[in-house]
Amino acid sequence: MQKRLRAELLTEPVDLYTILREPDHLSEIYEGQNDFLSILCDNETIICLKRGLALYLTPKKRCISFHIYNGDTLLYDAIYGKEDAAVAETATWLWSLKVPKDVKTALHVNSVAVYSGMEESREFDFAAIGPEQLIRILESNPTRMLQLQVATWTSEQARILATRPFPLKLTINYEHMYMSEEDKDDGTIFIDALEQRQSTFGSLLLDVDTLHSNGFFSISSINLDRLAKLTIFDKLAVAYPRQESVLVPFAAKAHELDYKINAQYVEPSDFESLEIVTTKLDLTFFERDMDIMG
């Protein structure tokens, strides 16, 4: 089976290992191992982990890549499989392994094409992560920072992210992100759920990698205004909203506001009567060829 799966899923030859004892903690997988490790799972998926350096193994079928920061250790990881459902099952298991509460940890999920020459048809569909799977991932390590740079997600996933009974540290990178046509709502379900929260959300960062991104995922002007009025955030970060919404984030009631703004969208006169509510503001103006830190 190993030889067959290697040929079906990967373009490069790798040595495959199997797990003999079910681990309880993430560190049990990589501690004491070489810098590169590949694991064959029972559901015919392959996990590849590389310590410290980026991992580039071009997939033949479906693939999701991600980074795990675990204390001082940085792991570049990927899961390869034939079908999204199997990849989702393996991802749920791996991402739900415990990390000690006193260890600073982060999970950066990047399901978009990061491999040179990788076809879009081989990207893992993050929407395949079911509700119970996502809840398990979040609740297994509730203090872990989570960054999502995924191609697709669903309204139910958005609702789950907004309604956990504990604070989150969530970054949504929407440069390449969109909802399926049946779920597309400009952020309404996510904001609806946030408005029902009675407890602190924690931190929410809505970010993009590049200034001139034409990302598909967006929050409408109305929903951005609703988001700014919420008092549940310790920290809120917003990057490059539409021109008609450019002043809205300044009214955010979060304790801390990190705001990246297109300089061409504002004039000095816009700030003359602007009321800024947050107690801590980190403001960055961007222009095409330069940035001005404010």
Summarize the entry for a quick read.
This protein has 294 residues and is α/β, with parallel strands linked by helices. It has helices at 2-9, 27-30, 84-95, 131-140, 155-162, 188-195, 221-229, and strands at 36-40, 46-51, 62-70, 73-81, 105-110, 145-149, 152-153, 168-173, 178-179, 202-207, 233-239, 256-262, 280-286, 291-293.
Question: How would you summarize the topology of this molecule?
Answer:
Layout: H1 2-9, H2 27-30, E1 36-40, E2 46-51, E3 62-70, E4 73-81, H3 84-95, E5 105-110, H4 131-140, E6 145-149, E7 152-153, H5 155-162, E8 168-173, E9 178-179, H6 188-195, E10 202-207, H7 221-229, E11 233-239, E12 256-262, E13 280-286, E14 291-293
Parallel strand pairs: 5-6, 6-8, 7-9, 8-10, 10-11, 11-12, 12-13
Antiparallel strand pairs: 1-2, 2-4, 3-4, 3-5, 13-14
Structure, explained:
With 294 residues, the chain is α/β, with parallel strands linked by helices. The chain has one domain (57-69, 83-293). Helix content is 20%, strand content 27%. It contains 7 helices and 14 strands. A 12-stranded mixed β-sheet has the order 1-2-4-3-5-6-8-10-11-12-13-14. A two-stranded parallel sheet has the order 7-9. Helix 4 links the parallel strand 5 (105-110) and strand 6. It is elongated, with a radius of gyration of 20 Å. Mean pLDDT is 83; it is low at 113-117 and 209-217.
Largest sheet report: 12 strands, mixed
Poorly predicted runs of 5 or more residues: 113-117, 209-217
Oligomeric form: single chain
How would the global form be characterised? elongated
Helix content: 10-25%
